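Model: You mentioned two targets. I'll fold them one after the other.
Researcher: Yes, keep them separate.
Model: Target one:
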Amino acid sequence: MKLPIAEIETMDRSALIAAWNEVFGTPVPKRLSSPFLRRFLAFEIQARPHGGLPKGFVASLTKAAREDRPATSPALKPGGRLIREWNGATHVVDVVEGGFVWNGQCYASLSPIARAITGARWSGPRFFGLKQSG
């Protein structure tokens, strides 16, 4: 597919889905937002002429994406960073000794951060993808 990168920015969701199907030959993953569709498509269209991602990296991604992941949450260590996109905005939370920093403010847990971002009562670990819903 010869799709100009500039065109991706102006596409509506149905055009993005059609472009995804043409580029990847697979259905769009569930719950993938339009901004992420744009980023994935733009990256892929630019990367393919240069050989794409290294094979070892692709294998690592495939392994990480498997459904047989352990149900336990990863240990959060100081220096870690959580990134979550919500309503088109990317939110970055830094893990520090004794808590979390978001927007320059310290929090003891992730739940108040999730509530501040969404305006609803969310489980912080669930919102940031550390705990599977169930």
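Model: Target two:
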Amino acid sequence: MKTRWTWFHKLGSPKWFYAISGRLLPVLSVAAGLLLLVGMVWGLAFAPQDYQQGNSFRIIYIHVPAAMLAQSCYVMLAVAGVVGLVWKMKLADVALQCAAPIGAWMTALALVTGAVWGKPTWGSWWVWDARLTSMLILLFLYFGIIALGQAISNRDSSAKACAVLAIVGVVNIPIIKYSVEWWNTLHQGATFTLTEKPAMPAEMWLPLLLTALGFYCFFGAVLLARMRLEVLRREARASWVKDEVLKNLGREALR
């Protein structure tokens, strides 16, 4: 049993995380660049027009991945909050603090692109629709976590407060997901799901899938980069950080 959970406890080691993230970061960065390039070019330039919305539907290739990532990121914050409170892993707080600004940007991007899409479709930039309102609440939840992290000077108290808010706020995620089913809304249902056949032809949903994967790889790369910097900042006095700095200086000298 102890061996089985070794990998989980390794996640709490800043030194181990820094080493493994250094290997994953270039892979995620290259994958994100390729997926986004192919998906965006395919979707924005070569995918056929929608028979009702024409070319205005192409905002879907930015709006949908951003909205999906915004919700997934908050779920990750809640999981990190649970791990931090229950298992006292400091890296969980690092992940929470570093992911929150990325999630806020993705939520803002989803709201802005949704407004751009809504103007030609609904005739209005904004309506107090259940889906839009719950997404706006998600943005405020992200702002709340970011503000708490900056306002509380004690690191442990800040970590606990942010974790609690992330866990409590996760109740908004199913509201966002099922709002179009629970209430009468202008917002359309899911574009495609894993359990049902896509309503769009393959030449329209395949670039959307590639773009969504690209967004997630981009999120992973940015998150790892931010976490690596934060780990170095928090562990600045640790011997392994000094060894890492000396190693990097040696590589620079060889160049």
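Researcher: Noted. Anything on target two?
Model: The longest helix spans residues 14-46.
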